[in-house]
Design a protein that fits this description.
It is found in: Membrane. The protein is of the alpha/beta class and 357 residues long. The protein folds into 2 domains: 73 residues; 272 residues, 4-Layer Sandwich (Purple Acid Phosphatase, chain A, domain 2), CATH 3.60.21.10. Helices cover 41% and strands 22% of the residues.
Length: 357
């Protein structure tokens, strides 16, 4: 009778523990998949007052949707790609609906393995990309390529076939276009060294725009040795770059023959800052952080610029929540559940071993 009572109470306690674990799992799912995104949005800065004289530009840097070569085999690779895609889609949708941008600019490295993908894989990656960022179609969209899209870094050479494939799926990687008062100049140093600035300037000389914005994947002020000549040729009001996955601002002083460049970290930016775009003796470059948690950076987000036709620019970063913190919480709960379901077995084995010896 005592044995039956023990079994009864054990099962009762076990059922209660199972219910507690289910509640913990449900609360964790709610927190990781809803609350953290909602809370992060609460601390985004309010948008400047909108008017017909403003353009709101959403800047998306280095999403690098994951490919198949560099990911683990099934099922881990499939799960990691699914989670990364889902995170990008969730964060982008919130940022887009919050900012209601006039223009969405993708600043290169759209895919992690675009430069080494087969045609079938590239088509799959493209469809995934367009599904993740499908809301962008409601705005004017600009694409530029990065080294992960068309090669050019380390062992992955850039060849015309890769560039042509990117342009077939997305847009030309080099040239200029106009949206309202804004001239958007797509810059690529490899093509600049090949073609010069003629393709960039040809479409702008007869335009009466008041704002010139250069968008480039790799930094001009930080790394380019010919920056003074570039600035003289293009005369940009501001430069927007990506590639380094970090939030930075560079200011180049044009009063000296050898341009002096000062840098400011913007990894703690939580409000709109004024970017000086009207000083004829300097030029500013804003580096946008990656929006993907798979890049390993502690902070990820989307750049947001509000431009005015009187040559003013306000800029901030709409930060995304940490995904790795959420994944660690999932791992901790899985470990707890594993220990719970195996505790009795391990305890009984320990008792039997003790009795035997």
């Amino acid at each position: 009778m005592k044995s039956k009572m023990d079994v009864y109470y054990y099962r009762k306690v076990k059922n209660k523990m199972v219910c507690v674990l289910l509640v913990i799992v449900m609360c964790l799912l709610l927190y990781n998949e809803c609350v953290v995104f909602w809370y992060q949005q609460l601390i985004w800065p309010p948008l400047p007052e909108n008017s017909d004289r403003n353009l709101v530009v959403l800047l998306v840097a280095d999403p690098q949707i994951q490919g198949e070569y560099l990911e683990p085999m099934f099922p881990i690779g499939s799960i990691s790609r699914w989670d990364a895609d889902r995170y990008l889609k969730k964060t982008f949708e919130r940022v887009y609906l919050y900012s209601q941008p006039d223009i969405v600019m993708f600043l290169g490295d759209l895919m992690d393995e675009g430069d080494q993908a087969t045609h079938e894989q590239y088509d799959t990656y493209y469809n995934r990309f367009m599904d993740i960022f499908q809301l962008a179609k409601q705005s004017k969209v600009q694409f530029i390529a990065g080294d992960n899209d068309i090669g050019g870094e380390k062992i992955h050479k850039r060849i015309p076939d890769k560039v042509n494939r990117f342009e077939r799926y997305f847009q030309p990687t080099y040239g200029s276009t106009q949206v309202s008062f804004l001239d958007i100049i797509k810059f690529d140093y490899w093509l600049y060294s090949k073609w010069g600035t003629a393709p960039l300037l040809a479409n702008m000389r007869n335009k009466s725009s008041s704002f010139k914005m250069v968008i480039t994947h790799e930094s001009i002020l930080k790394t380019n040795n010919n920056k003074m000549q570039l600035i003289r040729d293009i005369k940009p009001d501001v430069i927007i770059s990506a590639h380094m996955h970090q939030s930075m601002q560079y200011e180049g002083n044009l009063r000296f023959g050898d341009m002096q460049v000062n840098s400011i970290k913007l990894n703690q930016i939580n409000t709109f800052i004024n970017v000086n775009v009207s000083n004829p003796t300097s030029v500013n470059e804003v580096m946008v952080p990656t929006c993907s948690y798979r890049m390993g950076e502690p902070r990820m987000g989307y750049g947001l610029a509000v431009l005015s036709d009187d040559k003013t620019m306000k800029y901030t970063v709409l930060w995304s929540p940490s995904r790795y913190r959420s994944l660690r919480l999932y791992i901790y709960v899985v470990i707890i559940i594993f220990l719970f379901y195996n505790f009795k077995k391990w305890y009984q084995a320990w008792v039997n071993c003790k009795t035997y010896f």
